Amino acid sequence: MKKLLLLAALALALPMAVFADSGVDYTNSGGTLAGSNSGLTLSGSTLIAVKGLNGGGLITGNDLGSVTFATGALTSGDLQMGGTFAGGGSFMITGNGSNGIPNGVLFSGAFDGPVSWTLVTLANGTHNYTLSGSVSGAAGNYSAVGVTVQLTINTGKGFFNGSTSISSGDTNIVVPEPGSLSLLGTGLIGLAGLARRKLKS
Length: 201
Description:
Distance between the termini: 14 Å
Largest sheet: 8 strands, antiparallel, barrel
Strand content: over 45%
Order of helices and strands: HEEEEEEEEEEEEEH
Structural class: alpha+beta
Radius of gyration: 22 Å
Number of strands: 13
């Protein structure tokens, strides 16, 4: 009976180990956000901070790489007052090899659901637009899950007219820790051994 309880406890603990994920946070600045009914695109935006890459701390710099994306087409609302864009398109974060950031693609994916385009009028009469959505793709050798993207722009007292410079962007990527994957493998081997012994007795 004790072995059966131990087996049940191990079976319940394994999923928790798999979801003990680590996050990487990317911050970008500048660049041009262009939009039409066909979608929004970001180009020329510079990667300026990375936190948690390969388990490391915060890395900052004036130019660590670039962030580019394209959404799907506008499905509701409009560019000036806010709306929703379809998923799809593309999303890419690239490092340039400086300050310990790898040279090459750090993340590549696409929007996997609707992308929100929200207008907020601030107390001083200026307009903030926020783009937020979720992305799935690959970060290094891992499939990335739980990727969230947030981009904020301020157009002053005017509305978004199809092209503007961005103030800031933030992308948070959650990837499975290699240790969690090893723990899962070890746990599965242990379960197989216990089941084999149980069948022999």
